[in-house]
């Protein structure tokens, strides 16, 4: 499916990687129309360098100050949910051309300020939008996403563009076919216009590589935007995209959502087509199955995207997708839920604002008439699952490292710091397996993974739980290169459970005064 990999020929190692990067960066700059360039006077309003100073670009209303978007375009990008945009597009109140133009302009501004894009194809997007407007003028909507611009993580392949996924050794190789999800979104009426930035190797929570630079958080540019779908999280938060598609194998949709204050949904694997992506690792190696999922600024967008994609019979285009129909639940049956509350794990204590937000959310659920059942840390197995996931992820690191070495580029800081033990090195759940062969290690970890799955099965059954409420991380957004292992997201990938990050509350110096001792940093992958 148009799979990309490095050219391992001897000539590649002799090529100056910086020259390749400079050429690619110039291509990216030239792809932004001159009239969409941010004026230097706007940059003078900011505290430079952006990645070291806490510029709050959303609070500064920097997009309006550029003067690039008209008042109508500002309204289109800021004042409408995805459902409302689709309604306006279907009715003809908005054309796809003007909606696509508005989000393309805003994405171009975002790129210049927070480095969230990799590939841009604005001209092709506008051509597509004109086609969709013509179809609508004939009384025909192409599909439930008719005319809506959608952004994609760089790992998805769009024919004729690159999917370098942060490796210089992957540059210059055009995708020859679309990933199945790309064809599905086009069949549903979407407009694809940009691809978004990721970490080198897709294995850390900092979306930073030597080609496209470091993606910054538009809420505070001194903080991480998360990863590995960090470009999506930052672009959506900047309102440069109404709906983005990321991937997640340890939290890579949910971590950018929690860092950037957006919604992010990780479905069970194989529900949303994942096939045909550029691969940073050993082909066929899937110790934990990754999944694709949406990011947006409103909750209903999660359902709109997921329902539309599942309803398209994705298995017809992608053998990785399971064709289980969308199930519409009866609201009456959900009038009173039994909600489990995930406990703080002692190995990964919650920071004060996270603890407060979780307590407030539990009280809100109870106030709405639902029953909350407090789970213990032992029942949650967060640290245990993190230990298993970490060992699975670090069983095979040679291929990503080889992709870096193939060009001669150095690893970025977050990649150089990874592959350290989870649980601060205090192995508790997995027996000593380091002296075993890799096949035997994988088998032993699979046994421990199944133990966790069985314990959680019993929890759901014995306590008759409908849902579980918990923190998506110990922390809110953190300084660049300091995220470390993602315990509160990775354990859900290990269990292969669906999970959604819902923005709730904000940090507060007044409300979050409780003392907290930061543990020594241990880095690790946040992954795809």
TrEMBL record:
Binding residues annotated for substrate, in chain numbering: 202, 228, 249-252
Record keywords: Hydrolase
PROSITE patterns registered for this protein in UniProt: AMIDASES
Domain of life: Eukaryota
SUPFAM superfamilies referenced in this protein's UniProt entry, alphabetically: Amidase signature (AS) enzymes (SSF75304)
UniProt-annotated catalytic positions: 153 (charge relay system), 228 (charge relay system), 252 (acyl-ester intermediate)
Top-rank EC class of the record's enzyme: hydrolase
Family matches, as Pfam families: Amidase (PF01425)
GO molecular function, one term: amidase activity
Reactions it catalyzes: a monocarboxylic acid amide + H2O = a monocarboxylate + NH4(+)
EC number: 3.5.1.4
Domain spans labelled Amidase: 98-518
InterPro entries xref list: Amidase_CS, Amidase_dom, AS_sf
Similarity section: Belongs to the amidase family.
PANTHER family, per database record: AMIDASE (PTHR46072:SF3), AMIDASE-RELATED-RELATED (PTHR46072)
Protein name in the entry: amidase
Species this protein is from: Cladophialophora yegresii CBS 114405
